[in-house]
Amino acid sequence: MDQQAGSSLGLKDLNITDNSLTIDEFELMKVIGTGSYGKVFLSKKVDNGNIYAIKTLKKKHLIKKNQVEHTIAERSILENVKHPFIIELAYAFQTKSKLYFVLEFCPGGELFFHLSRIGCFDEKITKFYCTQIILAIYHLHQNFIIYRDLKPENVLIDKDGYAKLTDFGLSKENIKSNTDAKTLCGTPEYLAPEIVERKGHGLAVDWWSVGCIIYEMLTGQPPFILSNGNKDELFENIRKCALKLPDNISPQCRDLLAKIFVADPNQRLGGGPEDGLEIMRHPWFAGVDWDMILNKQIKPPFKPRLQSQTDVRYIDEVFTKQGVGESPESMADSLKGGMWEGFTYDGKRGFL
C-alpha cells in the first residue's frame, strides 16, 4: 500500500507536535511476547518508574501483509474503548520503521499459560473468566466493534486476577449486522462457519468464539482441531458444527454450547438483536451477579503472587529467555501526511 492509499483511510489532518515520546524514554527489560509483526517488551518508563508492556510492530511487515488498515483500527479502538476487562492504551508513538503501543502490563500472563499447565479448568473457574470475556465483548458490540480473535493467548490476567482482552489487530469498527465484514481472518481453529463460508459475517462470530474458549477451558483443547495441517477438513467440520460435547459437563453448560455452536449466525445464541444479553441470561449463568463482576467484587480463583512490579513468573520462558536485542531508532516521527498520520497518542492528552 502506498502513502496515498494509506491517507484515504480517513485519518484526520492533525497538527502533530514534536513533543511525542521516543523509545529512549523506556527501559526495555524483558521480552514477554512475540508475533509475526514484532515483539512485546516488559518496560519501565524512565522518568516515573511506571511499568508497561510495549508492543512493537514493523511497518514494512504490516504493509507487506496488508495489515495497515487493521493496525489503524486497532489504534483507534484502543484509544476510544475503555472497559475494566479490555487492555488499556497509555501511549502510542512511532519511528520511521516501527510503531509502538504502550499498554498496561498484566502480570498474571496469558490464560493460555495457566490452561496449558493445569490441563483444564472446572466449570466454576471457566464461568468466572467467561463472565469477563462476555462483558468485554458485549461492550465492544455496543460500540459496533467486532473482536474476531478470541483465544486463550489473547486473554490476559491482571494483577487482581481478572481477565482482559488484548490484541485488537483483527478487530473492525462500524459492524452493525451479521454480514457487514467480509475478510477471511482469524485463527483457523476458532473461525465461525460464516467466516469460513466467506458470505459476510458480523458480531455473532464473537459468540461462536466464546463457545470455543468455554470448550477449551473445560477440555484443554479447542472444539475444532487442525489435524495434519488439513484446513479443508477443519473447515468442513466447522461448517457442519461436527462436534461432540464432553460427557462430564453439566446439562446447563451442554445446552449453552449447543445453542452457541449453530451454523446460522441469526439462530445462534447471541446472534439476535439482544446480542450478549441472550448469553448472560442463559441458565448456566444463573446466580452470576454481573454488576459485581464488572466492579471486581468477586474473589477470583487465582490472583498473581508477585514479588515485584516486574515479576514475570507467569510469562512463558519461551519469551522471557529471549534477549531484548532491540536496537531502536531514537528519533520520533509523526510522518505527517502519510499512512500512519495520527498514530501518536498520549493517554493523558489525546492525540499529539
Automatic annotation (TrEMBL):
InterPro entries: AGC-kinase_C (IPR000961), Kinase-like_dom_sf (IPR011009), Prot_kinase_dom (IPR000719), Protein_kinase_ATP_BS (IPR017441), Ser/Thr_kinase_AS (IPR008271), STKc_AGC (IPR045270)
Pfam family, one: Pkinase
Alphabetized PROSITE patterns for the sequence: AGC_KINASE_CTER, PROTEIN_KINASE_ATP, PROTEIN_KINASE_DOM, PROTEIN_KINASE_ST
Entry binding sites for ATP: 65
Residue ranges constituting the Protein kinase domain according to the UniProt record: 26-285
Catalytic activity field: L-seryl-[protein] + ATP = O-phospho-L-seryl-[protein] + ADP + H(+); L-threonyl-[protein] + ATP = O-phospho-L-threonyl-[protein] + ADP + H(+)
Record-listed E.C. numbers: 2.7.11.1
Similarity comment: Belongs to the protein kinase superfamily. AGC Ser/Thr protein kinase family.
Protein name (Swiss-Prot/TrEMBL): non-specific serine/threonine protein kinase
